[in-house]
Amino acid sequence: MRRLLSMMSIAKVKALSVAEPARGQGLGGALLKTCVKVYQKLGLFVLYGQFDATETLHRYYHRHGFQVLDQQQGIDVGFLLTGNSATVYAGPGERLFQRWLK
Are 87 and 78 in contact (CB under 8 A)? Predict the structure, then answer.
């Protein structure tokens, strides 16, 4: 039960994208801001995602209040949520970004 509750405390931003002609208008930032507000209201603890390490998106996510991790660096969500170590890692060639909501 504890593991199930901890899994419900984490949300992943997946496939956030804005079409090239619409970029620079704040649409992506508005989507991220809405995600943060919704997940905060739901009582979640961590919002995270990942992106291709060759992309220059680290500045974008940092500007929107996320911590961008180095490649191979994970997010240790386990101890706080379950009392046991559990780390989330990005896939090969990717980087994680995270934001603690509480």
Answer: yes
- CA 91, CA 15: separation in Å to the nearest integer? 14
pLDDT tens-digit series, residues 33-43? 999 999 999 98
Q: Which domain holds residue 79?
A: 2-13+25-100
Is residue 93 domain-resident?
Answer: yes
Q: Which residue has the tokens 């996320």?
A: 66
Number of domains in the chain: 1
Q: Is 49 helix (H, G, I), strand (E, B) or coil?
A: strand
CA distance 16 to 25: 15
Cα–Cα distance measured from residue 84 to residue 1, given in angstroms and rounded to the nearest whole number: 14
pTM for this model (two decimals) = 0.81
Residue 69: which of 47, 92, 89 has the closest Cα? 89
Q: What is the mean pLDDT of residues 2-29?
A: 79
